[in-house]
Amino acid sequence: MEKVVIFGNSSFAQLVYYYLLNDSVFDIMGFTVDSEYIKEDQFCNLPVFPYEKIEEQYPPSEYKMFIAIGYSVVNTIRAQKYHDAKKKGYQLISYIGSKVNYWPDLKIGENCFIHENPTIQPFVEIGNNVIINGSSYIAHDSFIKDHCYIAGSACIGGMVTIEPYCFVGMNTTIKDHVIIRKMGIIGQGSVVNSDTDEKGVYSGNPAKKIYHNSLKVKI
After folding, report:
1. Into how many domains does the chain fold?
2. CATH number for the domain including 105?
3. Among 96, 85, 94, 79, CA closest to 32
4. What Gene3D superfamilies does its record include (predicted)?
5. 113 and 23 share a domain?
6. Are 184 and 193 in contact (CB under 8 A)?
7. What are the angstrom distances between the C-alpha of 159 and each of 89, 122, 139, 156?
8. Are residues 51 and 131 in the same domain?
9. Cα–chain-centroid distance for residue 182?
10. What is the dihedral of CA 152, 153, 156, 161, to 10 degrees?
11. Where are the alpha helices (DSSP H) in the chain?
12. pTM of the predicted model, to two decimals?
């Protein structure tokens, strides 16, 4: 079994640990976070080590890593740790749950996490560091680029492009051929019928831009 250390000590990190423990071939050895965020020396009954010295405890030649951070600041915090772990030499694992409905031609990058019950049609490509929640639907020929977060029950039409650092809310519908521009936020329940603007925040049916700078919006 491949040995893995999880970055994080949040509820999402606990969820990742549970999925990997019960539905993967990975052997979870422990957790790591920046030293200032260490609350206790154990998490989920496994040791927690300072990230600043993680190579000493879990050398990248022997261990892999998963960055278990959510969508804060339009996924940029997770992206920063993703790039930093790569610089340290770690290979980052991806998890596709056993209950995911997908085809063997799926292209998927590193540090991706796909929860149970999404349907992913043929010819879909998923970049690095992407989280896809349960019961989502991703139609054929769509491309979800790096550092995105797709919330539960989102419906993404065919030939859609979701550019890096986007957040797509629960029960959102995105029409075929639409482009969600970089760092966009789509509010829950929205219906997107046309291309969006970079850093735009959209909501409603049909979706309309309600704010111009996603970096200043707390999701």
Report:
1. 2
2. 2.160.10.10
3. 85
4. 3.40.50.20, Hexapeptide repeat proteins
5. no
6. no
7. 34, 11, 7, 9
8. no
9. 15
10. 0
11. 11-22, 54-57, 76-87
12. 0.97
Question: At which of 88, 112, 146 does a domain end?
Answer: 88
Give me the pLDDT at residue 97, please.
96
Residues 175, 110 share a domain: yes
CA distance 10 to 75: 15
Which residues sit opposite 48 in a β-bridge?
31
Whether residues 153 and 189 fall in one domain? yes
Q: Do residues 52 and 112 both lie within one domain?
A: no
**How far is residue 38's CA from residue 14's CA, in Å, rounded to a whole number?**
15
Cβ burial, residue 192 (10 Å; 0-12/13-18/19+): buried
Residue-number span of the structural domain to which 42 is assigned:
2-88
Calculate the alpha carbon distances from 78 to 112, 129, 139 in Å. 11, 8, 26
